[in-house]
Amino acid sequence: NLSDKLDRAFKVLKGQGSITEINVAETMKEIRKALLDADVNYKTAKTFTDDVRTKALGENVLTSISPGQLLTKLMNDELTALMGGTTAELDLKPSPTIILIAGLNGAGKTTFTGKLANYLKTQKGKKPLLVADDIYRPAAITQLQVLGEQVGIPVYANPESKDPIAIAREGIAQAKQNGNNVVIIDTAGRLSIDEAMMVEIEQVKAAVNPHEILFVVDAMTGQDAVNTAKVFNDRLDFTGVVLTKLDGDTRGGAALSIKSVVNKPIKFIGTGEKMEALDVFHPDRMASRILGMGDVVSLVERAQQQFDEKEAAELQKKIRKNKFDFNDFYSQIQQIKKMGNMKDLMGMIPGVGKMMKDVEVSDDAFKGIEAIIQSMTPKEKENPDLINPSRRNRIAKGSGTDLQEVNRLMKQFEDMRKVMKQMSNPAAMANMMRRMP
Ligand code: GDP
Ligand code: MG
Predict the structure, then answer these.
(1) 187 marked ligand binding residue
(2) What cellular component terms from Gene Ontology apply here (predicted)?
(3) CB-CB neighbours of 250 under 10 Å
(4) What is the predicted pLDDT for the residue at 437?
(5) Is residue 215 a contact partner of residue 238, using CB atoms and an 8 Å limit?
């Protein structure tokens, strides 16, 4: 599946300190393949990977995240933008708001009509009326009536009539009479696109002048969904898309393709047969779903939020001059703590999550260290070499720890300074690498 493929793609980048032309090209090739398999069409996948590649090459890799993680975040942002960026709301200002539902047979139109009415009633305080305008299937009217009953919303039907245009008009008249401020018209579909159906729905549109035309499509039909969307949009110029049956294991690549081919927002997704199984479409959540690695994104976001680049540059300068002191050490600890609960944070790293389940990691881990540093005088913090045995004794008492703990911290600090000094000196670094097995 896509997730496995992306894992493999990211392996290419693993352990590399920066995103380079070579590793990104290889990864993008894998990602393009993975997207194609998830029903994203070729043109969209190509544009997408080209864009991400350009952005990735200009990106600084933060020390706290891997290039693979950074790339995931970039891809997530790019996918989100491609799917419209923000949530597209229905225009509910006109009263009554007239909403026309269109799509092929079995796409989930009637089910969605019931769900939408329920949503508008319970979440938006609206008083909807449903109109049964599918006159070809005898069971269609009953189906809508049953759903209406279930969610407590009236249904207008005229089983004697064979004129969908007249029924739609009658429904709207009844809504005005009864004070319903939304009218949702459920229409007839066909097994595949045919001219008679298109003409009929065009006529209904012309007669009722809807404020919203929602095109309902089964997400599981993959590339067909994109083709159908194109034909319906050419004829109806719809205002939004509803993707149904996203409760299965479909990754939702259709969402990306449809948006990029017809350039209309996806407004809702159906996630089950029940009347409550409707979600407002959130581009960022769908992006995570397509990528199949949602948590990495929030991890990177948090790291980026907390990592102050200026502070980092300042720190590097100090390290180079061997001026790293206890003030810096203390603020490093605060940085780490700011990133949130350690356990949560580590749990977000793919593969680590499960391992962390039984391990106790707490922020208290820093408590002793913080107390020791706080018990130093400003001079001692700035110049750790001053801290002789008698000073260590005083610090231990002052911090409520013991001499052993203070000595341990001093040793850790010295080791850290040594390593830092080596890392900031390219010659020493090269020397160290040469000595490694
Ligand atoms: P219509 O022909 O377009 O009106 O489609 P229906 O509303 O009658 O739905 C066709 C079938 O798909 C029914 O069995 C529905 O219960 C089912 N269905 C609709 N929406 C969803 C959904 O979001 N998830 C799942 N699993 N099934 C759905
Ligand atoms: Mg139907």
Answers:
(1) yes
(2) signal recognition particle
(3) 19
(4) 39
(5) yes
> What pLDDT, in 10s, does the model give residues 82-121?
888 888 999 999 999 999 999 999 999 999 999 999 999 9
Nearest of 324, 371, 326, 365 to residue 342 by alpha carbon:
365
Distance 212 CA to ligand 1 centre (A): 21
Q: Is 105 annotated as a binding residue?
A: yes
The tokens for 160 are 């004697």
Query: Which CATH superfamily groups domain 322-435?
Result: Signal recognition particle, SRP54 subunit, M-domain (1.10.260.30)
Mean pLDDT, the chain, integer: 80
The domain limits of the chain are 2-86, 97-281, 322-435
> Ligand 1 center to residue 178 CA distance, Å?
29
Distance 139 CA to ligand 2 centre (A): 9
d(CA 264, CA 221): 19
> Which distant-in-sequence residues (6+ apart) come within 8 Å of 32 by Cβ?
45, 46, 48, 49
Cis peptide before 138 (omega within 30 of 0): no
pLDDT digits (tens, 9 = 90+) for 23-63: 677 777 777 877 777 677 788 888 888 888 888 776 655 55
Residue 425: per-residue pLDDT: 57
**CA–CA separation, 316 and 313 (whole Å):** 5
Model pTM? 0.66
Query: What residue type is assigned to position 145 of the chain?
Result: Q
Please tell me the class of the 97-281 domain. Answer: alpha beta
CB-based pocket (< 6 A), ligand 1? 103, 105-111, 189, 244-245, 247, 270-273, 277
Q: Half-sphere exposure of 174 toward its Cβ, with a 13 Å CA cutoff?
A: 19
pLDDT at position 311 is 62
Query: Does the predicted interface ipTM exceed a cut of 0.90?
Result: yes
CATH architecture of 2-86: Up-down Bundle (1.20)
Residue identified by tokens 């089910």 is 111
> Taking the CA atoms of the chain, what radius of gyration do you get in angstroms?
30
Q: Residue 347: what pLDDT?
A: 45
Half-sphere exposure of 420 (CA within 13 A, CB side): 19
